[in-house]
Design goal:
273 residues; alpha/beta; Rossmann fold; two-stranded antiparallel ribbon; 12 helices; 18% strand; binds NADP nicotinamide-adenine-dinucleotide phosphate
């Protein structure tokens, strides 16, 4: 099912680990000036303040696919400069131009993966796992010194979704291993958000983004970024070694969504206090 994993929020009671009530979350957020992460995913987006919004230039590596275009849609709506990357610069430009026209915005463009990565301060990798290592190895110079967000799920479809064994433990840990000499802060995030819903700009997601990584500051940056997507809350899911669990949840969701013809994501219960 390469065209999209069909993971949206229609069946939160099925796939959700728990659910935060929007109203309670809004109350929790209303008395604070500097918003904490639990406040950043307010479904209306109304609580986002200037304190939390730092405009970034974000490159989507492999951004011509549904997940890349979906994340590009949401990051653009949040006011960031977004560059859709492709192995073929013309394809990247075409995808960027099309999305900018669809959204009626000028903060979306396209380029080759190398140019996109060179221009960005946050680089999100959204290629198939089979292309993960080669893609990162080829962009080491452009990624050096920056934040790399890995959203790649090591999985294949073989009579249903199946995990791919990753010697490093997870795709995110593999990225950290590949880039260990390049001063890159590697963060795992966005694995559990369905491209199909991300691509619908008017649909709030009502989901958590589980964020893993070794660098606390970079993790906060990515959690804030996640929280700027309507209906999304960034949750600190721990160190890099927990990335495997986050990546594998996607496989569970794909299976559930296939059975229920749904687009479910995850909620972590009990964090709204
Ligand atoms: N789809 C979802 O709902 C979803 C949800 C969560 C996570 N993810 C993860 O996000 C990633 C992207 O998902 P997707 O559905 O958007 O994937 P996709 O459409 O299969 O691939 C995304 C892009 O990767 C590039 N690509 C393909 N093969 C490549 C190769 N051999 N080498 C380098 N680049 C290659 C292509 O861009 P160019 O040809 O333009 O270079 C393609 O448009 C995957 O790792 C997936 O597990 C997907």
């Amino acid at each position: 099912m390469p065209g999209g994993y069909a993971m949206s929020m229609q069946t939160e009671t099925i796939a959700a680990l728990g659910s935060l009530r929007a109203s309670r979350r809004a109350d929790a957020c209303s008395n604070t000036r500097i918003l904490g992460p639990a406040c950043l995913g307010n479904p209306s987006g109304a609580r986002r303040t200037r304190e939390t919004h730092m405009p970034h230039t974000i490159a989507l590596i492999g951004g011509t696919g549904p997940e890349g275009r979906g994340l590009a849609t949401r990051f653009a709506l949040a006011g960031h400069r977004v560059i859709i990357g492709s192995r073929d610069a013309e394809r990247g430009v075409a995808a960027g131009t099309e999305l900018a026209a669809t959204l009626g915005r000028t903060n979306v463009e396209g380029a080759g993966n190398d140019t996109a990565a060179a221009e960005a301060d946050i680089i999100v990798v959204v290629v198939p796992y089979s292309a993960h290592r080669a893609t990162l190895e080829g962009l080491r110079a452009q990624i050096a010194g920056k934040i790399l967000v890995d959203a790649v799920v090591p999985m294949v479809f073989d009579r249903g979704p199946r995990p791919v064994d990753v010697p490093a433990g997870s795709a995110t840990e593999e990225a950290a291993e590949i880039l260990k000499d390049d001063n890159v802060r590697v963060i795992g995030a966005f694995h559990n958000l369905s491209a199909e819903v991300l691509l619908e700009p008017d649909v709030p997601l009502n989901a958590d983004v589980l964020v893993t990584g070794a660098d606390a500051e970079a993790k906060q940056v990515v959690m804030a970024l996640a929280g700027e997507i309507a209906g999304v809350r960034g949750v600190d899911a721990g160190p890099l070694r927990f990335s495997r669990f986050v990546e594998d949840i996607t496989i569970l969701l794909v299976g559930i969504n296939g059975r229920y013809k749904a687009h479910a994501g995850v909620h972590i219960a009990g964090l709204d206090h």
